[in-house]
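[[Per-residue structure]]
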Amino acid sequence: MIHLLKNRLQHARNFLTLLFGLLLLGVVMVVGSTGLLLYSAFLRRDQRKQNARNVITRTFQMYFGVLQSLHILHLDLSDLDALRNDRGVILASNHPSLLDALLINSRLSNVVCIMKEQVLKNVLFGHGARMAGYIPNKSIRDIVNVAAEELTIGSQLLLFPEGTRSRTATVNELQATVAVIAKRTGVDVQTILIESDSGFLGKAWPLYRVPSFPVHFRVRVGRRFLPADNVKQLVTEMQEYFEQELANSRPARSFTKHCCGSMEAQR
């Protein structure tokens, strides 16, 4: 009886924690987008894009800092710092959860993402993304052309080659977009590996489902691939690499228990 009551109390606590985390994200994004809209009015047009990306990074740093301090999430993102000064590179990551782009953007402030067009049109959240120069996933021709322009001026292009969140323990079948852009622009493809001890906010995880907190994430820098004329071959090599690396990865809890300090401490 006591054990059952304890389990129910723990579930209730985790449910409230989940609700708090989701509500906080909504508030942070609305406030950040509104503040960015007002502040950008005082900037020159050529300053607005980078300023928007800086604000996005600081906003997500703050958000994840709060979640870490409350032991809702435990994060190891420090490996991404090695990429901060890289210019004109494609960042290709696996996609296990809804938090993936947020995690990467919280450490890298010169990122341009490829996003769903509906999100970019969202009244509450789309303004900041549009100001940051994020690319709508319309036609492949438009994506490649705009991506090429961004890479030419030194932006880091973030995309998830699976096209959607992972349905397997490793990765889905990769799409050719990443290899097509690399061939067109002649830039390297830097892989990023995201690992977690939970399926939290994955493809099969509904928003209302309560995980066991804290949820652990580790994001690490992987192999860098050179652009290739043979698009199919590059995609195949990347597919094999992601599958092998993620199949052999350790549970995230084991590699984060000694590195779960605040976001500030990891910077």
Q: What stands out?
A: The chain has ten helices and seven strands.
